[in-house]
Amino acid sequence: MALATHRTIENRGEFIREEYVAGAASIKPGYLLKLNSSGNAVVHSTAETLTPLMIGNLDSLQGSIVTTAYTNAASIPVCFPSKGSVVNVVVESGESVSIGSKLCSAGNGKFMVVESATSGTLNAGTLLEAIEGQSAALSADTLVACRVL
Fold this sequence. Notes:
By secondary structure, the chain is mainly β. The protein contains no helices and 11 strands.
């Protein structure tokens, strides 16, 4: 399956939707997020650790698209995908991906392939897409469909 131009983060399945205030700048849709001690949404900052899947979503009512970065103190819609749901997430540049690759937190809001992990292998999901023409590592951060485990 070729990588399509994604226009949404929620692909298919069941999602819980909430909204939080950004605790930092440069949060993008498809990033893995967490709540800080002030209750604000920030990028998940600890690689390869277990965390609820809180994915930054796009705010289509404000005209944002999947590449729109949120500013500090902006309202960020987020989704919590249910097990078995498909969500579009950002896999970081440099990762070699293929259908069936397992993902985990890269520690910067993005996802990385479990085979790149150095310690734990706490899987967040499985890739469902192949990147068309991709035979080496990703040359840029890429949005791909992932089934939640």
